[in-house]
Amino acid sequence: MQYGMVIDIKKCVGCHACTIACKAEWEVPADKDRNWVHRLGPDNTPHGLASTYYPGLCNHCNEPACVPVCPADIIQKTFTDKKSGKTKTLEVAATYKDPFNGTVQIDKERCLGCGACADACPYNARYVNENQINEELGSEGTADKCTYCMPRVEMGLEPACVQTCLARARIFGDLDDPNSEVSRYKKMGAKSLSSVNVNIGSNGLYYGNKRDMALLTATSTPQVMPEANMRRILMAKMKPGFNKAKKLGMLGLVGAVAMKGMKEDKE
Amino acid sequence: MAFNLTRRKFLQTATLAAASVPLANVVTAQAGVAKSPFTPSGTMADKTMVGGICEMCFWRCQLVGKVRGNKLMKLEGNPKSIDNGQSICARGNAGVQLLYDRDRLKYPMKNVGQRGAPKWKRISWDEALDTCAKKLKATEQKFGAKGICMFPHGASAKYPMQYLEHTVGTPNVSEASFFQCRGIRDTAFLATIGTPPGENVDMANAKVIFGLGCHFGENVHVSHTKRYLKGLENGAKLIIVDPRFSASAAKADEWVAVKPGTDTALMLGMMNYIIQQGKHNKAFIDKHGIGFAEFKESIAEWTIEKTAQTCDVPADQIKRVADLLADNAPNVSIHPGRHVSWHGNDFQRQRSLGCMMGLLGAMGVKGSFVKGKGPKGVGKVGWPKGEHHVEAMHVAAGIYPYSPPGTPTDLIRDAAITGAPYPIKSCVIWGQNPIQTIPNQQKTIDMLKQMDFVMCVDVMPTDITMYADILLPEASYLERYDFIKTGTQWDLSGKQQQYISARMPMVMADFERKDQVYITNEIAKRMGYGDKIPVSALPEMVDMQLAGAGLSIAKLIAEDGIHLQPGIDPYGVADDLLVYFNNAEIADYGYPASPTYIAVEEVPAGHFRLLYGRSPVHTFNRTQNNVWLHHAMPENPVWINDEMAKELSLVNGDRVYCVNSEGVKSRNTTIVKVTPGIRKDCVYMAHGYGTKNPAMSVGAGAGIDDQALITILAVDPETGCHGMRNNFVKLVKA
Amino acid sequence: MSATQEPIRLAEIFRFLAQTMRYPESSWFTDDFLSVFKELLVQLGHVPQKSLPAKITDAILEEIQVDYTRLFINGVPHVVAPPYASIYIDGTLNSTTADKTREYFRSHGFDITTNEFPDHLVTELDFIALLEDEKQGSSEEFLRLYFRPWFAQFRDLVLAEAEVSYLKTAVEVIDFFTRIETEADSGQAA
User: Fold this and answer.
1) How far apart are CA B468 and CA B454, in angstroms?
2) Contact criterion met (CB below 8 Å) for C93 and C117
3) Which class does domain B608-733 fall in?
């Protein structure tokens, strides 16, 4: 199963309701976003004058750039398939890709708030909520982003942004299910905002007429993977060492010191 | 000042022995916290409150509220709604931030400074109500009821407006929703097809949708937008006439970039062409048309060539659009528009839209002008009419024969400022912000300055509240009962259903906010009209109204906030429908009987015509302090044509002031948006930004207040309504 | 009136401080109240400034009311220092911080009784007083985690902008009684 979202920009009227419903649902700080609507154009395209929207959110990528950079200590996490009850145990840091539903999630309890994941995302889909500080971890805040509203979906509800969309321009579902509405859109040509350098299996797809898609892809496709900070890469590579440190009961301290270093590095 | 000891030291030594009174004796207030058993609250399972009716705009979608503890967390469309369904727009979603806006009015206040430069002091409700009643009564006694004027807006203003109009008896009431918005549409259509049209076009089932200045998507009313989108999905052709490539133009098959102000000419040219082609609906016109021959003759001068030249639109496109309309008639939605107070020639334009409906027979059939048949029976509760009847100024003077209800705004302002025909000395402002809704702000200020008394009732410290003597905090639409919303399913061709819903509070009002019935009744009692009070409280009023339909608040709650019942097929043309192509009555008043184009002033050299419109995240100027909405679109970029920008060396993102042709400069700056999507002769910005009241800590300083730049007054001669697109600006780099 | 020699209780002081931050009205903002306030200052080793009124007159009360309204309720150009934690922590009123504050009240067996928001300065001071009633020193955690993170910003705004000295002084006294004292502070003073 791989959850994905199609946005039909032919239908979208750019009303921004999706962004506000999300803020209310998840108490997102007023100046931060889990999703957004950028207004594009009017501008000339090869297919004529166009004006459209870029309603963006976390794409829950197949190869998420945000996951491997997380420097939090690695733990064994057991995932359960909600349908079959099957379980799978993986070694994960504080952000991971769910092996059953394909969503990328954050373990808020263990997030150090370093912002490495936010830096790594070519879609700018993450932010660090500096007001959510985990005292025990000595964190700088907590990373946050779209969860595809998993707690709502698990209750049988639509994601908040999908529910409120008056145009029914947001379609959510399982891309692995060939009969789903999202798969139907994919067959019709819905495509992700991917480029030569940024091709990480985004599961956010867009569908529209030629001129609108031309404007959307020209303005909103990321062209370069964000340059990963050397220290962060180092941190990521040091993870096995972290595991040992954890066993020795040292991780909290080491982690905190390392994180402070990274923060300075960022500034 | 610093205290040179520690707390521990202090506690060891201090006794407060010298004080004559023990500490505890001067603490009189009850603590705001008390012992209470701990009950952990759920997270996902917040309580659902039914019966919300949105009023972030005036479409009034039906809501449910998610309440955690005693706090509203989220608003959603009521799943039972057959109108908006579970969808609400950005503004609807952001209602939570109006409720908890940091700058919201909390307590009654008295201005102990100057009007316009206020100094506020919190006062008790008793003192506030006593003052309001005493001052209004003094005006009434000295100048008569007509010495009081009112600027109301919104559901909560209806009750006090009726009190002042009916019981106290002043005709001097000016509603922005009429005189600065849709009043012209309503009276022009009354004079053409016998009914105010609302936005009742069956777009969902249309073959062609024709919008003149309509910018759906930027202007969002949920069920209305659903109809529009359903139409497009079903393959309707979309024609958008707009000097700007609007949100709707971007989805259109034909974007007609008309020269601003010439829309009537375009309509006449197309109608003349359709008649010349013999494509008009002769059977319909024969049966329902009045004065068609005169009309036909009157518009014969509007050849395609003349129209193309006047409107600066290619002749081919005019023909194409006219053919598209005629060839798909009668399943054509000629949208009547909503905000139509544009150029001071608007009554004639609105008449021409009604005539186009008649010409195509686009009424009563699928996809055309069709009014849904809503439920009957909801009762009315109102203030009784007093004995004295004062004629409104325009009636007495025999002008503005097609004025919407109330008195044209400028008659009130002029009377107040000049004292003729009579003085107006008290002003009640209720839910309206005349500073940002009425053109020529200085004139509004001059009017207020000469008043003996000004009171404002609002939820937010809007610009106008700076001029109040007494400022009263009102319960918002989420904290009170009132509005009864009725209607049908959104898609007129769907299963025929009717609904009745009444506004119910999602949470109780915080602080000392009060509702309109309390405030009005208390003032009425103190003015000696206590015996005229129709209801003692809001829920009582709602129950009385609902009783007419066999409902009550309790019943509605039991039905999840919305009562549904079988509906009636809305299609069909009444036999007695008349379409006045030529209306002799209008000529009797001295105005053109057939729709006529009246040219507007040309743009002076070096200037652009200032056009304004809506942003999807704002309703008029009411929402600019909403922190969620503000973040979505923090300012209103000024659109300028790319070629003109090049001439002026402006690039995207440059910061500019606007200066109008009378030398008025915008208070704030905004950014330039350079685009091929606007004509060369105009610039455009969204309305609803740039409040001048710094008490609006989110909205103040953000974007340009277009209303401040609209100083040249245009008044539509038939209606007395303002035209607000006859002002010209330059962009000046900041 | 007999002078008590018992050491003063912190709970009583917080209850009094909460009172100082309520909207001043003639029913309680009296000469008696003012004399207690001044005495407290004396005990703090501070000679009351001359700018504190000698007696409460209607004019003086109105002056304080106007300044209070401007600082905390509705001001021009805008409210100077909204007395709510949420504004300083979240940027919005009655948001997450208010919820957390209320949860804290409830987890300690208390709940709000007015239609004020839980994170209002007065509500928080009332709560601190109640905690101190139960056990002296038990408000330390609340002060550290909930009160001080926003109060310091609030205090600075009031000190910079208040026009009447009564309000400035009251905020300074609150600052004194809510400051987190380290061992070093205590040692030095002792």
Assistant:
1) 5
2) yes
3) mainly beta
Question: Can you tell me whether residue B257 is helix, strand or coil?
Answer: coil
Residue count of chain B, please give it.
Answer: 734
Per the structure block, which two tokens stand in for B418?
Answer: 């000049």
Round to whole Å and give the CA distance between B716 and B362: 27
pLDDT at A231: 59
Which CATH number describes the domain made up of B109-180+377-566?
Answer: 3.40.50.740
User: What is the interface pTM, i.e. ipTM, of the complex?
Assistant: 0.93
Q: Identify the residue whose tokens are 């103040």.
A: B700
Whether the CB of C113 is below 8 Å from some CB of chain B: the reply is yes
Q: Is residue C184 part of a domain?
A: no
Neighbors of chain A with 3 or more C-beta pairs under 8 Å: B, C
Pick C115's closest partner by Cβ from B5, B511, B700: B511
Contact yes or no for B356/B595 (Cβ under 8 A) = no
Tell whether the torsion through CA atoms of A66, A72, A77 and A82 is positive or negative. Answer: negative
- Residue B234 CB neighbours (<10 A): 13
Residue in C89, C92, C97 closest to A30 by CB: C92
What are the DSSP calls for B504-523, one per residue? Answer: --SSPPPTT-B-HHHHHHHH
- Say what the pLDDT of residue A134 is: 72
Asked if C92 has any chain B CB less than 8 Å from its own CB, the reply is yes
Over residues C71-118, the pLDDT tens digits come to 999 877 678 999 999 999 888 899 889 988 998 998 888 888 887 899
How close does chain B come to C151, measured CA to CA in Å?
Answer: 17
Q: And the tokens for C17? A: 């401080």
DSSP string, B584-604: HHHHHTTS-SS----PPPPPP
Q: HSE-up of A52 (CA within 13 Å, CB side)?
A: 32
Total of domains in chain C: 1
| Interface membership of C47 toward B (CB under 8 Å) | no
Task: Give residue A130's pLDDT.
Answer: 83
Torsion of CA A108, A109, A115, A116, to 10 degrees: -100
Q: Domain for residue C190, yes or no?
A: no
B656 vs B731: CA distance, rounded Å: 6
Burial class (CB in 10 A: 0-12, 13-18, 19+), B344: buried
Q: Which CATH number fits domain A3-220: 3.20.20.140, 3.40.50.620, 3.40.190.10, 3.30.70.20?
A: 3.30.70.20
Contact (CB, 8 A) for B574 and B364:
yes
Contact A20 B94 (CB under 8 A): yes
Q: Please check whether residue B415 is in contact with residue B163, taking contact to mean a CB–CB distance below 8 angstroms.
A: no
Contact (Cβ atoms closer than 8 angstroms) between residue B258 and residue B213? no
The whole-angstrom separation of Cα B228 and Cα B216 is 8
Q: Is B552 left (phi over 0), alpha (psi -120 to 50) or beta?
A: beta
Parallel, antiparallel, or unpaired for β B237-241 and B208-212?
parallel
Are the C-beta atoms of residues B709 and B608 closer than 8 Å to each other? no
Which residues of chain A have a CB within 8 Å of the CB of C97? 131
Burial environment of residue C28 by CB neighbours within 10 A (0 to 12, 13 to 18, 19 or more)? middle
Q: Are C166 and C54 in contact (CB under 8 A)?
A: no
Architecture in CATH of B196-360:
3-Layer(aba) Sandwich (3.40)
Which segments of chain A have a pLDDT < 50? 233, 236-237, 239-267
Domain ranges for chain B = 109-180+377-566, 196-360, 608-733
DSSP B464: G
- Strand bridging mode B714-715 / B682-686: unpaired
Could you tell me the CATH number of the domain that includes residue C140?
A: 1.10.3480.10
Rounded to whole angstroms, the Cα distance separating A1 from B438 reads 57
In a domain, C49, yes or no: yes
